[in-house]
Amino acid sequence: MSKPLKLLLFPCLLSLAILLRSSTADVGTAAYYGPPYLPTVCYGRDPGQFPGSGLFAAAGEGIWDNGASCGRQYFLRCLSSATPNACIKDRIIQVKVVDRGTMLNSLPSRNGTTMVLSNAAFQMIASQAAQVINIEFRQVLETKS
User: Fold this and answer.
1) Is the overall model pTM greater than 0.90, yes or no?
2) Tens digit of pLDDT for each residue in 81-139?
3) Where are the alpha helices (DSSP H) in 21-142?
4) Where are the beta strands (DSSP E) in the chain?
5) Could you tell me which residue ranges the Expansin-like EG45 domain spans (predicted)?
6) CA dist 115 to 16, 38, 62, 108, 133, Å?
7) Is residue 137 a contact partner of residue 25, using CB atoms and an 8 Å limit?
8) Partners of 76 in the β-ladder
9) What are the distances in angstroms from CA 8 to CA 3, 18, 21, 40?
């Protein structure tokens, strides 16, 4: 194979490999909410339901799954926002679902989002100057020992 042909073929094969790579992430929107966080639909008044990091979320109707989302964990990151420079670039967090977005004890910054993040979780990936952000999220799959 001639050298010019090799130089042309390599970028094409690399591009094809990138396009064929399977993607397991979804996109959606996220808002935030503050205390009071208890009680929750998933775990009632149990204060042990919250991760020590304070990174938790309420599931919107699209991922609620009739309550099966309780306890699920997701990796997520901010993709964009109507508020300029709201996203903290290259920051990925892990949140645990502890509540249902439509049943919160305090008002979210915006209704109807995919997830409603705790104040701490939202501030890890975006400025609270933005009431809603576009997110990429992926469920954390449990590994069996």
Assistant:
1) no
2) 999 999 999 999 999 999 999 999 999 999 999 999 999 999 999 999 999 999 999 99
3) 61-64, 119-125
4) 26-33, 56-59, 73-80, 92-100, 115-118, 133-139
5) 28-140
6) 33, 17, 9, 10, 10
7) yes
8) 93, 137
9) 9, 16, 21, 57
